[in-house]
Amino acid sequence: MEIVRENLEVTYMGNKLSPEMMELVFIATFERVDKHTAVMGELALLDEEVNPVIDGLRQGGLDVSALHNHMIGEKPRILYVHFQGMGDVSQLAQTIKGAIEKTTL
Asked: What is the pLDDT of residues 30-86, one digit of tens each?
């Protein structure tokens, strides 16, 4: 699953960057492992979205493995949250959907 955040206008040194250049995406990959499903993903977030999204992921049983930036000085600031987990595919998908709903997408 990949959703491009076309609603964000990000500039760097006064120049508008494309969503592809900034990797402004919500991405999750699912893989069947025995009787469960594994998921890994990355979410491009605004500063104010980080804590609510992390809370939503953790409440759904997903682990947050990284929080970082790709650039310094972009406006607005974009942070990337990486997550992973294992379980029922429907529950995993619902958790990710709920976390995404906490953004301005």
From this structure: 999 999 999 999 999 999 999 999 999 999 999 999 999 999 999 999 999 999 999
Evaluate whether 61 touches 69 at the Cβ level (below 8 Å): no
pTM: 0.93
- Specify whether the backbone of 61 is left (phi greater than 0), alpha (psi in -120 to 50) or beta: left
Any idea which residue has 């998908």 for tokens? 93
Question: Amino acid identity of 84?
Answer: Q
Report the distance separating Cα 20 and Cα 51, nearest Å. 24
Based on its alpha-carbon atoms, the radius of gyration of the chain, rounded to whole angstroms, reads 14
Strand 10-12 vs strand 15-17: parallel, antiparallel, or unpaired? antiparallel
Residue 41 CA to residue 27 CA, distance in Å, equals 5
